[in-house]
Amino acid sequence: MFGVLFPNRSFPLDISTFTQVDDHRWVLDMNYFVGEAYDQVKEMCIFLLNELALPAGKALAVYVQSPGSQYEYRGAVHSACPSAVFPLLWPTTVANNGQMLLTGVGTPPLSAQIGVSIEDLLTLPMLNVGQQKRIEELALKVGKNLFNFMQSFCTVEGDKMLIPMDILNRWFKKFQDKAKRDPDYLNHFTL
């Protein structure tokens, strides 16, 4: 039905690598796959093996779970989008919005897991949750870079920071110059 690949970390893996929980759900225990270094696995490619793998209107939803957390949705593949690469962005705290509890007992497991579930396409969010979180992280890192630059040129009066009028232009020029000199510079802002 489906296969997965962890870029730069694995060969393609088929459904037999996962433990089947029921007719529509599978789990990959990351302790079995990579041990405690699960958080070093940053992304996953999932793909349907053929156009008949899923019934019309259905999708394979991907969830991740860190030790002690609930499952968090990361994205889905379906007949119109038969493959995708999702950033895994492992949860760091217990999530209240876990939509998929595969253990059946209500207690999160002690190992990280990836869950795959057949679900109605219309009930799933259309955006790639992992991609949205990456965009937010990128915006935060660029904003922090700007703030640090501004601090080095500002004066403080009470609870206000006074900055030169051309500070944004100066910061952006410096940002562009660094990106031109060092092709890897912009990668420092990604996860």
Please specify the SSE layout and strand pairing.
Blueprint: E1 2-5, E2 13-14, E3 19-22, E4 25-29, H1 30-33, E5 43-48, E6 58-65, E7 72-78, E8 83-87, E9 113-120, H2 129-151, E10 155-157, E11 160-162, H3 167-181
Antiparallel strand pairs: 1-2, 1-5, 3-4, 4-9, 5-8, 6-7, 6-9, 10-11
Protein name: Hikeshi-like domain-containing protein
Domain Hikeshi-like C-terminal: 135-187
Family: Belongs to the OPI10 family.
Kindly summarize this structure in a few lines:
This protein is of the alpha+beta class.
Question: Could you describe the 3D structure shown?
Answer:
This protein has 3 helices and 11 strands; from the N terminus they run ββββαβββββαββα. With 191 residues, it is an alpha+beta fold. It has 2 domains: 2-125, no CATH class; 132-189. A 5-stranded antiparallel β-sheet has the order 3-4-9-6-7. The two termini are 31 Å apart. 20% of the residues are buried. Belongs to the OPI10 family. Residues 17-121 form the Hikeshi-like N-terminal domain.
How are the strands of the biggest sheet laid out side by side?
3-4-9-6-7
What is the general shape?
Answer: elongated
Strand runs, count = 11
Query: What value does the average pLDDT take?
Result: 82
Euclidean distance between termini CA atoms: 31 Å
- Overall structural class, as computed from helix and strand content, comes to alpha+beta
Question: Which spans have pLDDT < 50 for at least 5 consecutive residues?
Answer: 94-105
N-to-C SSE string, H for helix and E for strand = EEEEHEEEEEHEEH
Question: What is the alpha-carbon Rg in Å?
Answer: 21 Å
Task: Give the biggest beta sheet.
Answer: 5 strands, antiparallel
Share of helix, binned: 10-25%
Number of domains: 2
Total helical elements: 3
**In percent terms, what proportion of residues is strand?**
25-35%
Oligomer: single chain
Organism: Sphagnum troendelagicum
Family: Belongs to the OPI10 family.
Protein name: Hikeshi-like domain-containing protein
Domain Hikeshi-like C-terminal: 135-187
